[in-house]
Amino acid sequence: MDPIAGILLIALGSIGAASFYVPFKKVKSWAWESYWLSQGVFAWLIIPWLFALIFIPKGELMPIINEAPSSAKLMATFFGVLWGFGGLTFGLSLRYLGVALGQSIALGLCAAFGTLLPPIIAGQNLFSTRGGILTVAGVAITVAGIIIIGYAGSLKSKEMTEEEKKAAVREFALKKGILIAIFAGIMSACFNFGFEAGKPIEDIALAHGTNPLFQKNPSLIFILLGGFITNLVYCGFLNIKNNTYKDYYTVSGNILLNNLLFTFIAGLLWFLQFHFFGMGSSKLPSGMAVFGWSILMALNIAISNIWGIILKEWKGVKTKTIIILVIGIIVLILSTFIVKLS
Predict the structure, then answer these.
(1) Looking at the 3D structure of the chain, how many domains does it have?
(2) pLDDT interval class at 48 (50, 70, 90)
């Protein structure tokens, strides 16, 4: 066990997660549903198989999948479908609130629900062990940081003119965005349930000689397949409804290659959060492993808000508001180091 190394690995994933939406700004002539589905093909179908083939011992991936209990594969996929609703609306929350505020609300709720509900449903008394108490304390501090950032977001909304809001986030809509972000955060917590359901798959992967750092990669194949199904249905519906299915074949070859490149980069960055999360959580002490999810979400929020500043989503607000935002980011980062106390 190496908690510091675990946190650093999860932080690498957080950088990818917080940055994945940035390449979309380079996509041309495609509607939201078109580029969202394109990155989903890469992030949820192609890249999980690619990474599993690379990091699972040669020739062992298919035997692992064949030997894994059908119930584990089905439940991992089922929770992936539920997570898909969160992932889908998460994209919409960024569309209406921007990278900073959208990720803060959605991922904050995702951190709280995803960290606390699995052990509670499993019948664990989180207050019976030191690790459990630290988990609850860590989540409480995470939520405090989220509240601070949310307050900074509300100040931002009051201080910026409508023109400034639209310039920072083209389709800014505070009320709609907040409602979507709340739903996204709750449903996105199902991803951690998918990991819990996929533990029998991990056990078989370890039995086949898989490095513990990469034991979650086979489970990701099934969780992300479920998420892809949800997003495919909705984005396909929008493609037909809005006649945007033409996006895929009416643009010039150069634009098509450009869009595929940047949606691939977005999908790769998105996937890396769970690749490094799997690596990092394997190094956390057993009593604090459940807190790994909260660490991932907290760092995602902190880094996404830094991106929000870089992308000038907070341009035009008062210095006081930026200070409050920075305090919230610091609180979130500090909450991740509670794992060192285990």
Answers:
(1) 1
(2) very high
For residue 2, the model assigns a pLDDT of 78
Contact 263, 29 (CB under 8 A): no
Residue numbers of the domain that contains 261: 3-341
Q: Report how far residue 252's alpha carbon sits from residue 323's, in angstroms, rounded to the nearest whole number.
A: 45
**Stretch among 37-46, 84-93, 127-136, 331-340 having the lowest mean pLDDT:** 331-340
Q: Which of 4-13, 68-77, 204-213, 268-277 has the least mean pLDDT?
A: 4-13
Q: CA 244 to CA 229: how far, in whole Å?
A: 19
pLDDT attached to residue 39:
95
User: What is the C-alpha to C-alpha distance for residues 305 and 141, in angstroms, rounded to an integer?
Assistant: 17
- Structure confidence at residue 165 as a pLDDT band (50, 70, 90): low
Please tell me which residue, 189 or 26, carries the higher pLDDT value. Answer: 26
CA distances from 185 to 9, 82, 93, 246, 333 (A): 23, 12, 10, 32, 19
End-to-end CA distance of the chain: 11
pTM of the model: 0.76
Task: Identify the DSSP state of 44.
Answer: I
Does residue 288 contact residue 132 with C-beta atoms inside 8 Å?
Answer: no
Distance between CA atoms of residues 34 and 180, nearest Å: 20
Copy the structure tokens of residue 110: 């995702």
Tokens of 59: 């020739």
